[in-house]
Amino acid sequence: MSMKILAGGSLGVFGLAILASVLFSTPAHTQEPAKKTADQATTDEGKKIYDKYCAWCHGEKGAGDGPGATYQIPRPRDFTSGAYKFRFTPSGDPPLDEDIFKSVAEGFPGTSMPPWKHALTEKQMWAVVHYIKTFSDAFKDAKPKKIEIAKRISPSKESIEKGAKLYKDLKCWECHGDEGRGDGPSAKDLKDDWGNPIRATDLTQPWTFRGGSSHMDIFRNFTTGLNGTPMPSYADTNSDEDRWHLANYVRSMAPEKDPSAATLISSAPIKGPIPDDPESAAWKTAREGFLPFMPQIVEEPRHFTPMVTAAFVRSLYNDNEIAFLIRWSDPTESKDGAAVDAFAIQFPAREGEAGTKPYFLDGDEENPVMLWLWKQGAAGAVELLGKGLKATGPNPKAGTFTKTVASYNKGEYKLLVKYSLKDRPKGTVSFAPGAFIPVALQVWDGGNGEEGPKKGVTTWTWFTLEKPTPVSVYLYTVLAVVGAVVAQGWIVRRVRRS
Prior knowledge:
25% of the residues lie in helices and 17% in strands. The protein contains 10 helices and 14 strands. It starts with 14 loop residues before the first helix and ends with a helix.
């Protein structure tokens, strides 16, 4: 029942056929009510659906050992254990039927489990729920009791401060890191109850939270724990109030609203030098675009389990150079060994017709790409020419990088790249203000064994240099305001005289 279909997720070879069936099949709608209680006919129907869609990842007998399981992190759920992460039942208890139904219907962002509500009817999903339960003795004669959600404490400044202290005292940082980016000292060695590698959640990216990202969802997870994982329940050790304070603090680590993938990245004009400091006012006010990554699974060697999920991009330019400031979360700083952390910005290599986009995986012979590549430990960025995923090399028409500054702090990279706009070779991308240029990103996490074709990639999006606002616009605005004031004064005087 699992296949990666979300940004940053992975899609196994065995999941391709399933993905097509999920996206293009039409549920056979029926007026017959869904059966929330099991009978043999319902269970038999659930088996048929499970064998067709779910066994590819979860296995024929529900042990999480299907042919696609090898390519997934986290591994598909082992239903034979009866241990479910996201529930409204106490720690160690089996889930409610409604908990399993929600998992089937909604899926889990950031994993290979899709929302089946788009492909199956409610009746079919309930049939799958009842069949899944037959894999484990944990459900025999079980009467799971739903936990009570204590009255919510609003996320005030005081509550968040108390939550921050709890985060430190309970040593949440050991797995999730000081800033919540999943980079704690224990994170790299985490395993589930079956010995499979498991990643600490990046708390700064709630759009990847598998059990929901609301304050209530987070409070529930602190109350129930996540069965089968190192994440414990705090119901017996901490009060309801403590768990609400902690939930409020965790949710405060991220923006209230999830970002949407940018369709246009714009570079703002600036007078004078472009700052080297990412914390400067000029960079803070530059518009930031969000671009999600997906795994490179098109060509060998494929990579099904990327670590980096997204990047945030800002850009500034002046008469002499253009600059990009990019930040992304990475739980490890990898600068030694065969695989190191790296990042690339990709443009078409040639000035093409409007709307022309080369092949997004490093271009091809007819339509090559220009890659600005930075690697951890290197002296600076280099410019490559890409004519295919395995055909990249030095660009004979390379431009000049005027500055490359990279920093890593508490699970986050910041990369500042400056590139000269002077003396661009003829036929190459000119970066003319107002032009629309395709741009894409690539990322490698060396700590996850990513190198060469094994990487995260984005699709093409558009990039443009905003045209500077002419001085005449400001002059006309001032004249218009002055004219309006004069006209208003003249009207007032005429009214008074009359």
